[in-house]
User: What shape does this take?
Amino acid sequence: MKPSWITAGALVGFAAVAAGSFGAHLLEARLEETGQAANWETAVRYALAHALALVLVGLLGRLPGRAASGAVSVAGWCFLVGTAIFSGCLGVLALSGLRWLGAIVPIGGVLMLAGWLSLAVAGLPRGE
Assistant: This one.
């Protein structure tokens, strides 16, 4: 099954906006009390940025000659999985205080970086 990166990006964006709103209104006091507001905000900010990156991947994949590009697909998977790990673990850490999750968060960050490098490769001239 070929993923729809535009749909994935839209859903990640929806979740990021919902989490941001939830954090700003329903969790604000708890996050401030536990000193985790910055972690929550970082999780939301990175999720929203990578939601837009996923939409970009989807649009690039529709360009002639780019749909078959393995680098575009790799970028999409790296952004999706990296965001889930990075923002997901950071969000759970902010809510639960489980500090060991902080050791997993960088794995998501490395995947997001790999996604940006893959996107750079996808943008290189292809001798067309």
Observations:
- The mean pLDDT is 92.
- DSSP finds five helices and no strands in the chain.
